Amino acid sequence: MLDDRNDAPIPDPYISSEEAARAAPAAPTHDAPSPVSDAYVAAVHGVLGTPSIGAVRPSADPAGTPYPPHPAAFRAVPVSPYATWSLVVGIFGLICFGAGPILGAIAIGLGALGWRQASRPGIRGRVTAGLGLAAGIFSIVFFAGEVALYLSLARAPKTAANAPAAKDSAQDPPAAAAPNNKTQDPASSSQPVKPAEPPPTTSTVTTIGNITVVDVALGVASLANELRRQHAEATAHGERLLVQTNSSECLPCQGIASALSDPRMQTALDHVRLVRVDNEPFEEDLAELEIPSKPIPGFFLLDSDLRVTDGINGGEWDDDIATNIAPVLGPFVRGNYVKRRSPWKKLPRPGGTSL
Fold first, then answer.
1. Does residue 274 sit in helix, strand or coil?
2. For the packed helices 322-333 and 251-259, what is the interaxial angle rounded to 10 degrees?
3. What's the number of CA atoms in the CB half-sphere (13 Å) around residue 48?
4. Contact yes or no for 240/234 (Cβ under 8 A)
5. Any alpha helices (H) in 96-208, and if so which ranges?
6. CA 49, CA 52: separation in Å to the nearest integer?
7. Sign of torsion, CA 309 314 318 319?
8. What Cα–Cα distance (Å) separates residue 95 from each residue in 82, 83, 135, 140, 170?
9. Quick one: pLDDT at residue 136?
10. What does DSSP say about strands 298-302 and 272-278: parallel, antiparallel, or unpaired?
11. C-beta of residue 44 within 8 angstroms of C-beta of residue 36
């Protein structure tokens, strides 16, 4: 078995051992490891911080060189808790607008305590305490600025609203400067006052296609006599008498008047004498004739004795247009209107009861 631990060459069987020894190069020699002393091992363990059995770290190596001192273990410097809480509370004071002054005051107090505590040796946190103090002060200032801005904006509209009123009062003449009736010019006071014109006494008759429209004059002596005369005129011309309670400010009445020229209204009110009565001036006269003055517009059929035989109002249709009005007034004037939204109820005579 060959030994190649020292990389020895393989022997040649054809060469004698003496020749091989002369031809072979000299084998390299290896220095034997020097023995390591126990003191050195203990010193290494001491530097690395690993325990050694029964070894004490020497002060110098075997050559006499002193070892460096063993480094001390790291220890963190504590931070003042007051400083940390001061910064946290100050930030919340900036975020929470409503509690800004309260949190700002707390942050300032904690910051002062943190600054004082950080001034002692072995405790840090002066920067954090300073930031907490600044945040607390800024939160209070910010709150005060917001309140001042709100008050200035709220006061501006009131000032603008009071300015026109003051201007108007300055422009109005004082009461003492108003002209006195007793000191007026005699020429102006002697001017005659024009009397009011009396209302007309003759009703207006207008023909719209096949419909005769009569507006009862406000100055007629008797509404009953006027309706009796119109009934006679309707009979003489082969027309049906239809009384409508009206008002100048009634929008539905205006819509009906505008729809009279429509062909559907012409067909529905063919040969009809439409007598329009203003409900306010003739309220008492209408009550004597048992004709309701409200609601308006109202439509009533009268016989020769001026007794109401039937009646409806504008609530029987929706919008005041010919499409809605004609299907109601056409059957009504001919006595064929049966399906109603509001049944007809005869008014009682003054001092009596309804039948």
1. strand
2. 80
3. 9
4. yes
5. 100-118, 126-171, 186-189
6. 9
7. positive
8. 20, 19, 11, 12, 49
9. 84
10. unpaired
11. no
DSSP state of 14: T
Contact by Cβ (8 Å): 39, 32 = no
Identity of the amino acid at 109: G
State both tokens at 88: 């946290």
Q: Which of 180, 182, 160, 164 is nearest to 172 (CA)?
A: 164
pLDDT at 186: 47
Looking at residue 14, its pLDDT comes to 55
Q: Which two tokens stand for residue 232?
A: 């006679």
Cβ atoms within 10 Å of 94's Cβ, excluding its own: 17
Cis peptide before 9 (omega within 30 of 0): no
Q: Please tell me the total number of residues recorded for the chain in this structure.
A: 355
Please enumerate in sequence order all residues whose Cβ is within 8 A of that of 105, keeping only pairs 6 or more positions apart, or say none.
Answer: 136, 140
Half-sphere exposure of 148 (CA within 13 A, CB side): 6
**Chain position carrying tokens 């460096």:** 68
pLDDT along the chain (355 residues), means of 10: 53 60 57 56 63 56 68 69 84 78 85 82 82 86 84 68 52 48 48 70 88 90 90 92 90 92 93 92 89 90 90 91 92 90 73 48
The DSSP call for residue 326 is: H
CA 93 to CA 106: how far, in whole Å?
A: 9
- The three-class DSSP label of residue 11 is coil
Which pTM does this prediction carry? Answer: 0.45
- Token representation of residue 205: 């008759």
